[in-house]
Amino acid sequence: MTATSASSPSASSSSSSLSSPASVSARPAAGPPRGRRWLPFSPWHLLLAPLTLIFAIPLIWLLLSSVMSNAEINRFPPALWPSGIDLGGYRYVLGNAMFPRWFANSLIVSVVAVASNLLLGSLGGYAFARMRFAGSRVLLGLMLATMAIPFQLTMIPTFLVMKRLGLIDTLGALIVPSLVTPFAVFLLRQFFLSLPRELEEAAWIDGCSRLRVLFLIVLPLSRPALSTVAVLTFLTTWNDLTWPLIAINHDTQYTLQLGLTTFQGQHHTQWSAVMAGNVITVLPVLLAFLFAQKSFIQSITSSGLKG
Amino acid sequence: MSRLPTPLTLPDHGHAHDDHNARTSNDNTRDAAPSAAGKRPGQGAPRRRLRGESATAWAFVSPSVLIILGLSVVPVAWSLLLSFQADDLVTPSRWVGLGNYRALVRDPHFSQAVRNTLLYTALYVPLSIGLGLLLALVLNQRIRLVGVYRTLIFVPFVISATAQGVLFSFILDPEFGAANSVLHKLGISAQGFLTDPGQALLVLVAISLWSGTGFCVVVTLAALQDVPPSLIEAARLDGAGRWHLLRHVILPALAPVIAFLLLWQTINALQVFDLVYVTTKGGPLGSTTVIVYFIWEQAFKNFTAGYGAAAAYALALALLLIAAVPRVTRAVRGRRENHRLEGAAR
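Structure tokens for the assembled complex are given below, as produced in the milestone run.
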């Protein structure tokens, strides 16, 4: 009785909801033909294509000029398109012993920073998420507060600290401050909190140590958060110029960014070599981005919005 | 501009969640007491292990805590101390009290740096957010190749400020650059760009827009896609046109993201340095000397570290005020509203 009386209103509501999707779907169906009447594609492309080109042209120009000869670049007015592929710039830059060295330095600093942020960030984030210890709230609050400290407020004393430690002019001065960021700890903590506790608790009761639980159960489930930390850490360390500029004087210890800007200052008229060096500086990040685009964009939007 | 977002600014949903979790973890430890242990077998962990827990936790957090606090709290205090001293980074420093701050107020180079930074920020922040919003709205349409457009617009963001600076120094080189070559073909006379004191700062804004707009686009686009379709559908069924939909449904839904971008872009713009160092080194005629460049120059080029630290403290204070403004206005507005309500009640 009640079932049938209940079913009749639901039937009427389902019929009304049937009619609304029909009207909804009728709209988009009616939309495209209106646009397609005078163009074989959406008119938005007329706006988007030139706008996007503005973003792409400087990068295309970077690639083109790196394979031009200096003669082509230095005549007036300069050529806008290479007449052939001239690898002189690359040969000069790679033969110049410094660029490979700078590349290696940048790679060492970035890889160590990524690995240690993942490790220390996971350990710290896990303890803050799941373990109880005296002062954990205060400590977490303090760590969060340090994210608001602008870098230029700490850069002079950090230089003095590194000097006392004897690290100035070594890669150590670049590595130590980037070993772990409050961002990594906090982001991983938030992610760990979102995981169900039951899995960990079962393992814990079975006698697994916290460390084993973290490495065998929690981290394999945390791939999205770990990749966010890895991507953002790599991007910031690889791209940084300010701190290497302060901490490094000797050119054997330069990173690529510092080397590139110095190289430009010294080879002011050899633009094709400078652009070849620039391509080498940009390439790792660009390739990483193109291969892991989705993860890049997710990292950046999620870190900005959700934390 | 490649400084990346940190999860500080938005009232995140994580917090509610996190409080909830904290509460349950409290319950757990209480449950560990034998009386409750029987009720929930899965959480009746022996007490012994809880006692060892604290030591393990400290072992887990101490590397992060040492590095993060050691390289932030110590320098912040040291910086404050430095700002009251004359220090050349080598010989022992001398106490000068408020001398650095007094000199800062009177220094025409510092006030020029402040003016340049404010102009850069006032141009870059609204333009990047506005352009980002427009592009995001267009990219949110259902058209082909949207993924390609989005990728191309975003790519400059991942490129370092150094690479951008070197690239644009070349493109905008008055003699050998492609920009003047194109202008020449269009019959326009050659421009100075970064070498022209009247143009340099504007050119820097343009370069920053080239690389920074993609970030705003991607963030805004993500928020746009989170606007519930039912909301839009409901408005449409109520007869809302395109403009009304934008004005009354979509923009209000984007308000938190735009507020975040406003704060984020402002904080980053006030700290611009790498691009300036690579392209103009503060010149020509100091027309692009921004505050952080001024600080760097004082501390590491002129070796007047105390003076640089004082300038850094001035900037940090300004940043703190800016970060606090939204909170304060919200509080004030809330109170005013309360007053109004109370008045109405009376």
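The radius of gyration of chain A is 28 Å. The CA atoms of residues 240 and 301 of chain A lie 21 Å apart. Further analysis is deferred to the final report.
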